[in-house]
Amino acid sequence: MIKTQTLKGFRDFLPIEAKKRQYVISALKQVFESYGFEPLETPALEYEEILLGKYGQEGDKLMYRFEDNGKRKVALRYDQSVPLARVIAQYQSELAMPFKRYQIQNVWRAENTQKGRYREFIQCDIDTVGASSPLADAEIIEIAISAFTKLGFKNFKVLINDRENLQFKTQGIALSQDKNILAVRSIDKLKKIGKESVIKELESNGFTKGEAEEILQITEKAKLTPRLAEVFSILKKLRISDSQYEFSSTLARALDYYTGIIFEIEAEKYTAGSLGGGGRYDNLIGLFADKSMPAVGFAFGFDRLMEAMEELNLFPANLQTTQVLVTIFSPELLEKSIKICEILNNRKINQELYIDPDAKMEKQLKYADKKQIPFAVIIGPDEAKNNEVTVKNLKTREQKTMKLDKLVASVFG
Amino acid sequence: MIKTQTLKGFRDFLPIEAKKRQYVISALKQVFESYGFEPLETPALEYEEILLGKYGQEGDKLMYRFEDNGKRKVALRYDQSVPLARVIAQYQSELAMPFKRYQIQNVWRAENTQKGRYREFIQCDIDTVGASSPLADAEIIEIAISAFTKLGFKNFKVLINDRENLQFKTQGIALSQDKNILAVRSIDKLKKIGKESVIKELESNGFTKGEAEEILQITEKAKLTPRLAEVFSILKKLRISDSQYEFSSTLARALDYYTGIIFEIEAEKYTAGSLGGGGRYDNLIGLFADKSMPAVGFAFGFDRLMEAMEELNLFPANLQTTQVLVTIFSPELLEKSIKICEILNNRKINQELYIDPDAKMEKQLKYADKKQIPFAVIIGPDEAKNNEVTVKNLKTREQKTMKLDKLVASVFG
Questions:
Q1: pLDDT value of residue B316
Q2: Dihedral sign computed on CA atoms, order A316, A317, A320, A326
Q3: B388 shares a domain with B346
Q4: Residue A409 binned pLDDT confidence (cut-offs 50, 70, 90)
Q5: Are the beta carbons of A5 and B90 separated by less than 8 Å?
Q6: Does B283 touch chain A (CB under 8 A)?
Q7: Contact B130, B286 (CB under 8 A)
Q8: Per the CB < 8 Å rule, is A322 touching B36?
Q9: pLDDT at A215 over 80
Q10: Using CB atoms within 10 A of its CB, is residue B134 exposed (0-12), middle (13-18) or buried (19+)?
Q11: How many Å apart are CA B113 and CA B121, to the nearest integer?
């Protein structure tokens, strides 16, 4: 017998979990579409050369790559930004520009697995490509706030900074691009590891203690840039409550490709980390095209979002859409049960007919319990004779026998 | 510059196409859930040994297989039935049995690409596992009929047969299992290639002409089996119109694993082939478990379904959810446009604010056209001064200027 197991870092989603995921995805799609964002899907497999080198050495190492049966070198989707860049280059004339798209697909990364880190996981991105206006930045922030509100989050905040604030100079001289990237990556850890550790990390990366301290000082003293001031003024015009966003000079974001505004969302009672983030990246999308192309986007951290919603109890109590299990007392009474289904159906009450007329009543009720169906109806020989029906509330375990025509009103009214 | 291209047999879905796919998927899910079917998701990658040998030599050849970074032999999902069998074995105690699940995920097959055949495509399956009743068979047929009705198909029919009718005897002696499989595969082509060719194919597979003719005769003479009679009687009790299903003695289905009822759905005006099919397969699901497990299911042919809906014009005329593009006349008038968005939003009219206050009006209107947004509103200096708004119908190209408070009622009333 073959051992039944899934690969490390890969997950099955059984119905209860799968429904929760669908609930979140469907809420997010609704929000995205209400702002005119449209779906895009790209293939799971791409030519390796499309993806290679775009995510740095680390990415090349973590990518799932192989040779297909036709000896083509292929790789599994690693993120949704590079495929977006390819799509923009490939179909430019077909797309409405600015292109506002959302994309919710799996990506695969051969990461070291640890709590909350998987090798197959959903990415959930919104991006506006082809607009450099501060309005485009503001809209992305507005959508992120709408989405978290829609999902039931209360005390959350978008932290906002500008990469311009992280163009460091030491003793008046600008850092080289490479050194600046190293500095940004260390500053990004400030909240997590503290000043001392950031200085140590900068030192171990070749900065002197003096330079490291200056970098920290510059970061802490930074102010709203003119561009951020514009974005904040639009957010005000859009009537976004200013309790939902704030300038944070220490926000850095680890990704190298940001070129302007950056932001991250944090929920007060969820401390495991940010629930999503993004920013402006005006140089990435032009990668495959003959011209550069401004872009701004936000990526929802889907697995963390699921975890936070679980912890904060934000899922509806019961995602079971079936209200009633219609049991079958015995094969001869099948038609009576079908009749009940019809009555419920006509009143738009979701019902499910148990699928095996030979199963014991106990088994049928256990099935309803396991599926968290709130009610079961039973129609045995006595009920059938008297034109009655027995309704069992599976939570309270109470049951009541009543005339058939009272069923809908008395129990589900 | 890297050439931007997708792999042969792999597709990008740009917004218009992606929305159509979502429309179909969401309609199908609604139907499945209304019958108590619940979602299941399994990983894209599995240990190779879970999948290998389950789909025959052909399957092993067409499977995407490789070694991952940890030297594990892995394979991409090839269908959803084997993963379902694994899930049943792995989580039996957690699942409500009978297990009624739907699964809508991509699978990958290194097929020769040709019209309508892809290497990455969606499978869309419903299966009831753990119920051997004819009611379970009937329910699957009922759901298929509901789904096609919901999608707008009118003249379609479920053809039904029983594999029992395809247990052939020649001169009174039962065929060996292997020979019987060959015979079924040839009979499966009857409609497509005709009697003569089926006989020829059987002959080339080692049957004598006499045997071949006998097999054809047996097929054509076959009648409703007692089991099918039961299923038909339940379909009647379920009030399924008998114009929507019929017994077809020549229906064979090519897959080897069916053990009882088989069915296929055909739409009158779509002749490229069946739009889905399924049947009872009581031996497959027990593959990884210590006991056998009855099962019956239906697989929707997603790509054909999309093609048929296109040909039969069954998609809504406009899947664009945005009703109005709110243009921005100039940066100074941004707030006026935001005000319009608020008015529309309060009346639950989906609107989208154009994202670049510096863009020319022509560009903004072209954007609305390309996205098939029906209306655009313009609020220039004159309109702003007079508390008016101009509404442009993008289909008729007519435009009308009116007082702001007349906007909702006069145009979208």
A1: 94
A2: negative
A3: yes
A4: confident
A5: yes
A6: no
A7: no
A8: yes
A9: yes
A10: buried
A11: 12
So what's the pLDDT on residue B64?
A: 97
**Is position B47 within any domain?**
no
Q: Which of residues 295-324 of A touch B (CB under 8 A)?
A: 321-322
* CATH number of the domain bearing residue A28: 3.30.930.10
Record: contact A4-B288, CB cut-off 8 A: yes
Pairing of strands A375-378, A351-353: unpaired
Answer yes or no: are the C-beta atoms of A168 and A215 closer than 8 Å. yes
Q: Which of A1, A32, A38 to mutate to test the interface with B (most CBs of B within 10 A)?
A: A38
What pLDDT was estimated at residue A16?
Answer: 94
Q: Are B302 and B375 part of one and the same domain?
A: no
Interface residue of A1, A5, A6 to substitute, partner B, most B CBs within 10 Å = A6
- Residue A321 identity: T
A342 lies in which domain range? Answer: 324-412
- Asked whether the predicted pLDDT for residue A52 surpasses 90, the reply is yes
| pLDDT on residue A65 | 96
Chain A hits for B294, Cβ within 8 Å: none
Residue A115 has pLDDT above 80, yes or no: no
Token duo for residue B160: 């039904």
- In a domain, residue A214? The reply is yes
Q: Which two tokens stand for residue B108?
A: 């990958």
Q: Are B344 and B351 in contact (CB under 8 A)?
A: yes
Rounded to an integer, what distance in angstroms lies between the CA atom of residue A129 and that of residue A88?
9
Regarding whether A329 and A275 lie in a shared domain, the answer is: no
Tell me the pLDDT tens digit for each residue of B208-239.
Answer: 999 999 999 999 999 999 999 999 999 999 99
SS3 content of chain A, % helix, strand, coil (to 5): 40, 20, 40
Per the CB < 8 Å rule, is B342 touching A120? no
Partner A contacted by B50 (CB < 8 A): yes
Give the pLDDT of residue A55: 86
ipTM of the complex: 0.94
CB crowding A34-58: b at 16 or more within 10 Å, else e:
bbbbbbbbbbbbbbbebbbebbeee
B-chain CB neighbours of A22 within 8 Å are 39
Instruction: Out of B18, B47, B67, name the one closest to residue A7 (CB).
Output: B47
B208 in a structural domain? no
pLDDT value at A286 more than 90? no
Question: What integer is the mean pLDDT of A359-365?
Answer: 97
User: How many CB pairs below 8 A link A and B?
Assistant: 236
pLDDT of residue A292: 86
- Looking at A128-189, list the stretches that DSSP marks H as alpha helix, in order from N- to C-terminal side: 134-150, 177-187
pLDDT mean over B66-85: 96
**Residues B302 and B384 reside in one and the same domain:** no
Q: Are residues A251 and A300 in the same domain?
A: yes
Is residue A6 in some structural domain? Answer: no
Looking at residue A271, its pLDDT comes to: 87
Check residue B330 and give its pLDDT.
Answer: 97
**DSSP secondary structure, B137-179, as one string:** HHHHHHHHHHHHHHTT--SEEEEEEEGGGG--EETTEEPPHHH
Cβ-proximal residues to A25 (8 Å cutoff; 6+ apart), any chain: A104, A122, A124
Under an 8 A CB cutoff, do A355 and B131 touch? Answer: yes
d(CA A164, CA A167): 5
Which pLDDT does position A255 carry in this prediction? 82
Whole-number Å distance between alpha carbons of A353 and B135: 10
Interface of B with A in 388-407 (CB under 8 A): none
A341, two tokens: 């289904």
Cβ pair A350:B110 closer than 8 A:
no
Confidence of residue B264 (pLDDT cuts 50, 70, 90): very high
**3-class SS of residue A300:** strand
Q: Which residue has the tokens 């609107």?
A: B351
Q: Mean pLDDT in chain A? A: 94
